[in-house]
Amino acid sequence: MPRPRRTVLAAFGATAEPVVLPGGRGGTWRAGDLVLKPVDFEPETRWRSDVLAALPESTGFQVAPPVRSASGDWVVDGWEACRFVAGEPDVGRPDDVLRAGIAFHAAVRDVPRPSYLDLRDDPWSFGDRVAWEELPLDGSPADLLAPLVAARRPVDLPAQVVHGDLPGNVLFAAGLPPAVIDWPPYWRPASWAAAVAVADCLCWYGAPPELVDRWSHLPGWDQVLLRALIYRIVTHDRASGDWSPDQVRAYRPVVDLVTARLSAPGSAR
Hints:
Blueprint: H1 6-11, E1 19-20, E2 29-31, E3 34-38, H2 42-54, E4 62-63, E5 79-83, E6 88-89, H3 94-107, H4 123-131, H5 142-151, E7 160-163, E8 170-172, E9 179-180, E10 185-188, H6 190-204, H7 210-214, H8 221-239, H9 245-263
Helix pairs in contact: 3-6, 4-8, 5-8, 5-9, 6-8, 6-9, 8-9
């Protein structure tokens, strides 16, 4: 991944030598108290920076404040910058991750839908649209998707801007509110964002099945959890099309858990 050029560092006021940060795709750099990374989709970067810069302080979460360049822009030669925030991700704390997400979503509840979402074209956007029946299902493995699609029912919940990838993007530091970073925005019910986090923790981070029950008070829970799984499965299929036995095994017990909940007597199908 490229290193930020001297002109980019100067434009954002960085004086320290940049060092690459671990995690992600290896393209994020820290220079003193600044973090710089390549811009994936410029309309999203500009919109997200405007929203984050306007958020009031909260005791429930913090963000990495975006930094304008010397010219006042959020983007310089394909790079964006934010302030460094202390903390480390901890996917072994799913309940704390979800609580931080809920506080964040409450703060952005009234933000209007960004129009650029209609233009975003990537595997994650594709998986999201398929999950919410805005695009036809076109993916594999069919044995994972078929029971989920069969159990899918309409969901009547208000949508808002949400963070679609919370685990790994919530940082914890002693004495500080958790930091919500690397925000990929979606326009979905807030409970769906929580369901994506729960699905990820169940599939990949060793969370116990009881995590599903602990958050079942959230609106439309089983149906948004079902859509979270469809979203992740279709996205993976779209991005790579390659399914290892370990990946299938990671999803199968969670698919079985969710479909069993939906087929239980008295469940809200």
